[in-house]
Amino acid sequence: MTATTEINKIINEDNLVYKKTNLLLDNEMHYCPGCTHGVIHKVIAEVIDEMDIQNETIGVSPVGCSVLAYNYIDIDWQEAAHGRAPALATATSRLMPEKYVFTYQGDGDLASIGCAEIIHACNRGENIVVFFVNNAIYGMTGGQMAPTTLEGQVTATTPYGRNTALNGHTMKITEMIALLPGTRYVTRQSAETPAAVRKLKKAVRKAFENTTEKKGLSFIEIVGTCSSGWKLTPTQSNEWMKENMFPFYQLGTLKDE
Amino acid sequence: MGDVRLMKGNEVIAEAAIRCGCDGYFGYPITPQSEVMETLMARQPWEQTGMVVLQAESEVAAINMVYGGASCGKKIMTSSSSPGISLKQEGITYLAGAELPALVVNVVRAGPGLGTIQPAQSDYFQSVKGGGHGDYKLIVLAPASVQEMNDFVGLGFELAFKYRNPALILSDGAIGQMMEKVELSDYKPRWTDEEIQEISGSWATTGKKSDRERNISTSLDLDSARQEQFNHKLQAKYRAMEENEVRFEKINCDDAEYLFIAYGSSARISQKAVELGREKGIKIGLIRPITLFPYPTKAIQEMLGQVKGILSVEMSAGQMVEDVRLAVNGKVPVEHFGRYGGIIPTPEEVLEALEQKIIGK
Amino acid sequence: MAKFKGAIVVETEKCKGCSLCVVACPTGVIELARDVNAKGYHYAYMANPDACIGCSSCGLVCPDTVITVYRTKAS
């Protein structure tokens, strides 16, 4: 038997173990090659599909690279002004308390311009899920400093590296958020290996189940890469992330009540 | 007669919201309109109608909560005063860009900056010319009494949903704070989920059903050709408002040789100035614009055959007068009279201004 | 000898050639093609199909979800 015929025998519906969920639309993603957003979108779509809550879920997309997230997951979406997604989600969840409402925000959107909105939504304990994608840089505008940019990290607006005297300190907003009594589940995940993706998926599932149980706010930070902003290849980016991001942004669950 | 009360304008806004079936109010305290949210919190409408009331962390958050709530096809409102409305401009242009119906109330105080907490009408430009970025218009209603504070809440929602466009009640600190007799509207139930599906099902983000495409509430379209088409659609909507929704009141205009044009508090004072003038034998009339956008341009133009001059009376340095001049197009003299910085003019001052600036010239 | 035999199908026109699947594959099955797709990307393909165990690692880490994975018991 030739190799090709053997492969063709394996490729049939009975042997299918992994395919794109129907909740991911066929639109080609606009993200750069290797971008973590794609993996996170997929995981969220898979969980919504598996929980069978497509018709009860409303996503709120941010301003930033993931502004067009609504083109990829087949649910109802609201597109927020920069940083304001938690305000939209607050109203949506309060007006339709039986729905699953989540925001999807980057580090500029959530930790910089939308700092007030996220802190207060967390403090009120809104019954929503927040996905916070931290790649320590502004992607869409071309690689400028974010609040989460590491000390010494070179960006378009810190061309000599982030200098804390000049640019302020690197912000661990997830640790701040974990202190707020309104948050119930605060975790920091990643998505660079199959094991990490599986763990992330468990966290996403738990967060949406918290909504079912009306537990309050679940907050998932995903430490990700931005190969265009970091000026590295996707695989180099993962290595850079492990070496530089993980020691500072330690993975794990900060709070689970 | 329905439910007749003696109430403050701001309290009436709150009461009218509950009674018209409003689903949610999101606000942030600011003088001189804090009674709106205070009244709602005291009334606890969530116990009675299920209406959501939330004190937001800022005006910016409040208007974006309005965006979220309005995206769900619900009747949502906010209120503030001038500095707070400036903060809300970002959200207001997003509402207009996403074609979301919502009601915003501005109980105007004097500016610029923090200015003062006393009443003014210096937010006219911001309200009718587009206070935020982009080519958009709000439906702007100008109440001149506590009764109209009641009436325009229901009307504002009706027009907002008719055109899928934010509506603004442009009041001022005097009408917000004054107590007057008001006949409150009868209670209307909040819309059911089925009614929302019927009214707004084609766009509201209530959860994607299997029988429809996903609904997306957004003001973004990166394709310039489509963006231009969308702007054409918005402009057509604004022209339809100009065609169908102009509202104004004419007082003593039949034989008028001179005309005051004034809205809100200034219209009340100008009405008294009309009386004082007529006692002196001067034939004065008053046109009171009720909608500031769409503006009663034609109503003014129809008077041009009979009037010798027009005085635009505003508690501002002269904003609406520009729209009066556009309507008049040089055919008769148009002047502005205003007090500002929180000062309300007297009827005597208004009459004297007409005599000096128009009749005496 | 692996207990499972696997195979992947890559939607080559949507692949952006990021290589994350190449790194994630525990058995060295995947490489980037010398050819490019219509967008000019060197797409992923099964260079060593015999080594595939159908573990789905490539599918899990693929940001563009262009990989479908099949698996069967080794005969």
Automatic annotation (TrEMBL), chain A:
**InterPro entries from the xrefs?**
2-oxoacid:Fd_oxidoreductase, THDP-binding, TPP_enzyme_TPP-bd
Annotated Gene Ontology MF terms?
oxidoreductase activity, acting on the aldehyde or oxo group of donors, iron-sulfur protein as acceptor; thiamine pyrophosphate binding
Q: Which SUPFAM superfamilies match?
A: Thiamin diphosphate-binding fold (THDP-binding)
Q: Which domain of life is it from?
A: Bacteria
According to its UniProt entry, the protein's GO biological process terms are: cellular respiration; small molecule metabolic process
Domain Thiamine pyrophosphate enzyme TPP-binding per the UniProt entry, residue ranges: 70-222
Keyword annotations for this protein, in alphabetical order, are: Oxidoreductase
Q: State what protein this is by name.
A: 2-oxoglutarate oxidoreductase
TrEMBL record, chain B:
Tell me which UniProt keywords the record has, alphabetically.
Answer: Oxidoreductase
- Tell me the domain of life: Bacteria
What are this entry's molecular-function GO terms? oxidoreductase activity
Q: Where is the Pyruvate flavodoxin/ferredoxin oxidoreductase pyrimidine binding domain?
A: 15-188
Q: Does the keyword Oxidoreductase apply?
A: yes
Name the Gene3D superfamilies for this protein.
3.40.50.920, 3.40.50.970
**InterPro entries documented for this protein:** 2-oxoacid_oxidoreductase, PFOR_II, Pyrv_Fd/Flavodoxin_OxRdtase_N, THDP-binding, Transketo_C/PFOR_II
Can you give the residue ranges of the Pyruvate:ferredoxin oxidoreductase core domain? 256-350
Name the PANTHER family for this protein: SUBUNIT OF PYRUVATE:FLAVODOXIN OXIDOREDUCTASE, SUBUNIT OF PYRUVATE:FLAVODOXIN OXIDOREDUCTASE-RELATED
Any idea what this protein is called?
3-methyl-2-oxobutanoate dehydrogenase subunit VorB
List the source organism: Ancylomarina longa
What would be the name of the gene that encodes this protein? vorB
UniProtKB/TrEMBL annotation, chain C:
- Tell me which InterPro entries the record gives: 4Fe4S_Fe-S-bd (IPR017896), 4Fe4S_Fe_S_CS (IPR017900), Fe-S_Ferredoxin (IPR050572)
Q: Which domain of life is it from?
A: Bacteria
Q: Which Pfam families match?
A: Fer4_7
Q: Where is the 4Fe-4S ferredoxin-type domain?
A: 6-35, 43-72
Please verify whether the record's keywords include Transport: no
Q: Which UniProt keywords apply?
A: 4Fe-4S, Iron, Iron-sulfur, Metal-binding
GO molecular function annotations of the record: 4 iron, 4 sulfur cluster binding; metal ion binding
* PANTHER family membership: ADENYLYLSULFATE REDUCTASE, BETA SUBUNIT, BLR5484 PROTEIN
Q: What is this protein called?
A: 4Fe-4S dicluster domain-containing protein
